[in-house]
Known about the structure:
Elements: H1 2-17, H2 22-25, H3 41-44, H4 50-60, E1 66-71, E2 74-79, H5 82-91, H6 119-129, H7 135-139, H8 142-161, H9 168-185, H10 198-206, H11 211-222, H12 225-229, H13 237-257, H14 264-274, H15 279-282, H16 286-318, H17 320-336, H18 343-347, H19 350-357, E3 361-364, E4 369-370, E5 377-378, E6 383-386, H20 388-392, H21 411-416
Parallel strand pairs: 2-6
Antiparallel strand pairs: 1-2, 3-6, 4-5
Amino acid sequence: IILSATAVVVFLYWYLTSPYSYWEKRGIPFVNPFPIFGNVIDYIFLRNTSTESYMKIYKTLEGHQFGGFYSGSTPNLILRDPVIIKQIVVKDFNHFLDRNPSFVEKITPLARNLASLTGSRWRKLRVKLTPSFTSGKMRMMLPTIIGCSQELVSFLGESADDSNNIEIRNVASNFTTDVIGSCGFGLEINSMKSPDSEFCRMGNKVFQPTFLTGALRSLGLIYRPILKLVRHPIASKDVNDLFLGIVKETMSYRQKNKVVRNDFLKLLIQLKNKGKVDEDLMSNMTDTLLAAQCFVFFLAGFETSSTTISCCLHELAVNPDIQERLRKEVDNVLIKHGGQITYEALQDLKYMDAVVDVGSLARFCTKDYKIPGTNINIDKETSVIIPVYAIHHDPRYYPEPEKFDPEWFSDENIKIRPMFTYLPFGEGPRIC
């Protein structure tokens, strides 16, 4: 028995570590991996984030345009050169069409969203959805956002009168929930007064991983095929049911009662009425597909926006000189526009843009690819990592990267900084 157990352990060790010669055989610089766990052992055991892991790998490969590392036993390529990044995400995009496939559509209807779809299905849906995001279409939602902002100002005023401490992260989360609920789902959530509503509760649940989710993530990092074997949904059944139900009921009510509201759902209803994207994608699933787009609207806007808002407010609090300059800009712009917050007024807030801009991207190789100017080939199904946080903290592009400095985004500094060194939303056709 002991001999058999030893043999099994030895075999598993060999099976999981044999891929570690992958980058060396190809003559590509790489970071030496830890057996079984590769270069992400701290991330697997929740000792740091994926961002911090990529930052460490990025620094280790200093002096190279790119390099290899391992997620468990799976080889990944990380990019350090903005010229190569541009080549991959824009010029040679057809080789890197997909993001890492993570969800199973058959058991996860909400995974049929633009961010998760792959290949031709993503292309066809993108063609249909892109016209919904013109500046004119976004402009029509501004009054709705201003209404949510007025609720926020009222809440902060009342809280200040009470002389109580305010947890700004929660306030920012409630505000983004109100904006997304109103613009994306046609709902008046009013999270400032009702933070325990079902929409808020289910929304927060999306971003609270369960033990099973964490275990699958860690096992999937060690051995990627596990993610293909285990069908785990993008969200729990109750979350799926809530979002699907809200969208279907709201769409049905509006169509029966001829209700028109300037929000994202209106644009999706217009898309639905124009016809199918293609037979395979839309057949008998029209409402579900559109609900999935509302869901990704929530995913993309809730946590990211609330985190950005709370971090910006913190930095403004500890940098009063920047706060004062920003306040003067806001006052001057409001005077110019007659005290009204209009779409044009927002375009004039240049310093505000710079403040917000101071706040990881992955591609999946769908076809074999040769890196231009080299003899290096990237095999199909290799994950290519663009370490956005590491690039944004590279002193070559951002002097004193830990300092909060809106001047990085002055017109002068933007002109002299290499392209593709600021990628908050990615770039190319799959830009967020």
